[in-house]
Write a structure and sequence with these properties.
- The protein contains three helices and five strands; from the N terminus they run αβαββαββ.
- It is α+β, with helices and mostly antiparallel strands.
- It has one domain: Alpha-Beta Plaits (2-Layer Sandwich), CATH 3.30.70.
- A five-stranded mixed beta sheet has the order 4-1-3-2-5.
- A hairpin with a 5-residue loop joins strand 2 and strand 3.
- The longest helix is centred in the N-terminal third of the chain and has 15 residues.
- The chain is globular, with a radius of gyration of 16 Å.
Length: 108
């Protein structure tokens, strides 16, 4: 295999590992610093995206980056911070689009 071919193969492997996640977390997840918890966890994992409260009491998370790191974030969402009671994490996997630079809390 030529160096160029090896580079192309490695480059496509890296792209395949990139993914996007959309998750809705339900339970006692508002008023317990859940958004700050998600922000810290996502930043520690090097992910980009946002977290926000939803009017129906859930927390919405949109994140993108390395698929394995996103899977770790989902596990952390299921645990939540102290004081939270997570009943469900409805996670959907999407194609990576580089929609975010950094991770933030959205207030709307």
């Amino acid at each position: 295999m030529t160096e160029a071919a090896a580079f192309i193969c490695l480059g496509s492997m890296d792209k395949d590992q990139q993914a996007a996640l959309h998750a809705l977390v339900s339970g006692r997840v508002q008023g317990v610093f859940f958004r700050m918890f998600v922000l810290r966890e996502a930043q520690a994992l090097g992910l980009a995206g946002m977290v926000r409260n939803v009017a129906d009491g859930r927390v919405e998370v949109a994140a993108e980056g390395d698929r394995a790191k996103l899977e770790r974030l989902v596990e952390r969402l299921k645990a939540g911070p102290r004081g939270a009671v997570v009943e469900d994490v409805d996670a959907a996997w999407l194609e990576y689009r580089h929609d975010y630079d950094g991770f933030s809390i959205a207030y709307d």
